[in-house]
Amino acid sequence: MIILYTGIVLLCYSLISQKKYNLLVGCAFFLLIMGLQSNVDSDYETYQNIFENAEQSRTADDEPLWDILSYCFRPFGWYFFVFCISLFQCFVVYRLVKKYNTADSTFIAPILFFFTYGMMLIQMTAMRQGLAMETCLLPFLFDFSNKRKRIWPYFLVPMISAYLIHNSSVVMVVPLLYYYYLLHKRGKANKPARYSNFLFPVIVECVFIVVYIGKQYVFNDLFQQISLLANANDMRLSGYLELGNEVDDVFELSWLIVLYDAIMIFLSAVLFSSQKGVYKVFAMMSILGFFLDTLLFGMGSMPRLGYYFVIANIVTIPCLYVMLKNRYGKLVSFLFLLFCFGYAVKTSFPYMTGTEHGGYGTYKFLFMQ
Q1: Which residue of 1, 11, 53, 128 is 20 to 30 Å from 160, comparing CA positions?
Q2: Under 8 Å CB-to-CB from 280, ≥6 apart: which residues?
């Protein structure tokens, strides 16, 4: 319950001091939880055993950079290694929020990162993927205002590094290529839009409905066949396709998930239509994240692929908050935040309080051992 209580303190601090918010203090909350963690099972325990026994991970041939980092940090101990990884992750989040969020919306991102299950909590155990996720975000932190600067190394190096840490990061090729394209396009005359700011969100929403219906009535048998084929041939990342015992229930979605994703997809599409530059990339990542949240729900570990895009919400949701506040007033923006925060807590509360496998209810700070 330590994580939950810490989150409540963060929530109170953020809401009370939102007008004079200190982002460093907000980020310190999840650095405290991530960097000083212990008594956590699942992947965290596996990584610790491999590290302390000086073993080679089973993915060393395909993802060697993690093993190289482990080798370099082994003289300093496991907990120092975890703290350094957490420090890097928190630094990237801090810089991202500082660079792209307005002063009156900065308080939102730390709450989302702390409580959304696909952000802080998953990165505490899926450590390789968490490190790969923040590595993929590095191109968004660089200054490309100098048009004479060669920008391709700032994309290629982080992307290759992330891939050598965790191969699943290949999904980030799409948004990073789109960002690269926008940077090359800047300064050129834009063609008139072929669709209005309203038509595009409607089209995207209709596609989401089709995807949802297809998931319910078409993709079930198809996914089971793909899962069996991938595992039979020992394909890379086939473990992401492993199903639990209740295969028939794999596609049972609650209406809350579908409703939340549908609303957020529409709003993110509106943001995509109305924004320029890098904010279009973040909006696109959020749209992809919400699509995959519904499409991949229940598909073994496949939802983890969507977490690469979900983290963009720490930029997108504050932007939506400001947009709604300017257009419709404080009440609508407040209700929107209540909706987002409530859903974020809903995704993480069972894990923060659970003591079974995958739960964080037994979490302890390192100095409490």
Answers
A1: 53
A2: 178, 182, 272
